[in-house]
Amino acid sequence: MLYRKRISDSELIRKLNSSGAVLIRGVKSCGKTESAKQLAGSILNIDKDKYVSVLLETAPQRLLLGETPRLIDNWQEQPKIWNYIRHEIDNRKQTAQFILTGSENPEENFGTGRFTTLNMQTMSWQEMGFSTGKISMKNLLEGTKIDIYDEPTDLEFIIEKIVIGGFPAMLEKNVNQAIDLNRAYIDLLSKANTSHVSDVKRPPVKVRNLLRSLARNTATMIDITNLAADIREKENVALSRPSIYKYLDALNRLMITEDQPAWNTHIRSSASLRKAPKRHFTDVSLAVAALEADEKSLLDKLNFTEYLFESLATHELRVYAQANDAKVYHYSDSSGLKADAIVQKYNGDWCAFEIKLGTGQIDEAAVNLKKFVSVLNGQKVNPPKSLNIITGTGVSYTRTDGINVISLASLGV
What we know:
The protein is α/β, with parallel strands linked by helices. The chain has helices at residues 9-16, 32-37, 52-58, 81-92, 125-128, 137-142, 155-164, 175-196, 204-216, 224-234, 241-253, 284-290, 295-300, 302-322, 362-374, and strands at 21-25, 42-45, 70-73, 98-102, 115-119, 135-136, 326-332, 338-345, 350-356, 386-391, 397-398, 404-407, 411-412. The protein contains 15 helices and 13 strands. It has a 6-stranded mixed beta sheet, with helices on both faces.
């Protein structure tokens, strides 16, 4: 199968030219290895080459020999190799020597000037060809007026893509095949992967119960106490708070889940900022698979599907924001005022998003965005570059009040 270009490819090239090694990290099967192969001069498959463990104990430097940049695939299978790579970079004093791929967040100390990191998501709609990308995150962060009209997207199409997800292996699969594969992914995760990153053995049934609870509460700020209550009520199983904390840590290290942090800003309201993150699966299809849902069940429960769509849109924002040197946050305060997503660049420029599956709540979302901006302390917070409403089934246009309505099928990098 031909390689499908990824938005993060240009970031990989840039970071290779800046450091001795780049660590590409992302959930298993998101496409890390294929992206790395496009630039690699040679490859060491840690999890496939039988001689690796022997050489690591006897002649570790031989594992690092080869045309550069040398790809060290699945480095976490032999964590000792990390330090040898660090020392080799120090000795060579050159950039673009190694690319490492792994589906765990490392605990090692990188060391200044040796490593850069690239966080890789599953595929975005623009990468898969479902979005025209006519409305770019770059322009939204610059405040450029949008002036396009794309055809609306059917609800059934959106739900199908939520179920299938963005793993590269799903590109050529139909919805039934994707359901089978995504459920198998969850099943294998429940039985095996969490024990790989922790000394504590985790019973598969309890891992699955937590995954189902996280799926039911996707795109919410649910805390550990309420997760425990939800599992007790819906799964009829008791899972202690310390156990949930440890399970969540393992899932985060495996990058199965990815929290959306709260925006730390200044407000002039008497309300206080809430600091809890929103919880998401790294790909929304995993939430669907954890609940063993399908297209029909999501059509029957559109209130829940709204949350899944928000999670999908948040994933898209992460991909496009990263390419623009920005990160994705959310806003929530004690008065109940919320903003679904804040995209902020490292230089401070930012824009805000409300996310709605259909068009019926656009006016309400616009009112909410304006109220949100009104509570910010204008002496300490720069005004937003743009205010935006992402919709699933609507078209893209700019309202008379200046707020952009953006179809997810128009959004891009």
